[in-house]
Write the structure tokens for this entry.
Amino acid sequence: MDMKARGWGSLLSEKVLALLFEKPSLRHRTSFEVAMRQLGGHCIYLSPEEVGLGKRESAADVARVLSGYTNCIAARTFSHQTIVTLARYADIPVINALSDLEHPCQAMADLLTIYEKKGELEGLTLAFIGDGNNVAHSLLLAATLSGMNFRIASPRGYGINEDILNTAREYAAESGTEVFCTEEPRQAVTDADIVYTDVWTSMGQEAEVEKRRGAFDGFQVNGELLSLAREDAIFMHDLPAHRGEEVTDDVMDGERSVVFEQSENKMHLLKALLVEMIGGLEIPLPDYR
């Protein structure tokens, strides 16, 4: 089955996915639900108020309960430890739909988009401008695993988690790629194949808005900065975007932007992931390296 073909299938006709979300989401909730429905499965959304994860009921008990009702859990949590606990106590697969440490589904959808646009991954250079957050962490790991060079420009004090960075450097040594960290956006972007940014203030950091705006002054991806990248470079953003802060309208809506294709690809990637994990069907993937 072509995972990007629109329409309805029956690969997951007897499967149920639980969406266990502590954080709201436009793209992840919609992409998971539509992915399951296009594959003939069912999806149950569990809001923070309904579950009270870690407050009304422990993550371990929630994992055991949902293991008896559903076939898979997609969890979107504030703490990465909650994901770890759910996976430890569940008898069914647990998908990290976002934690404070990593955002792996986003990174996989991003690699799919880059592969479609560039025809390869190996040897490309991805420049990430902004906070060394969960999106940057997963992109760094995914890039070095797949043969891509990774550069990140962040203000002092907002860089990549040290453990993630050390792991990525091990991957880079094996794949022959480079990891470069700087406080100068122009250094990161020059001759890059992909320029990527994310919001300066993520969910749960609202009290830091003004502090972060000051710290990230000069880290906006605008037309001038993007012009330093390769002529055929693409621009990416995982959304939602705070237009006028980390990115300007002319870049978001420009001819180099693949932001909305990137967003749609999340749904197609999740279809393949769900079929692989709970559908009993091995999905042949391109040889990215």
Summary: The longest strand covers residues 16-21. The beta strands are 16-21, 42-46, 72-76, 94-98, 125-129, 149-153, 179-182, 194-197, 234-237. DSSP finds twelve helices and nine strands in the chain.
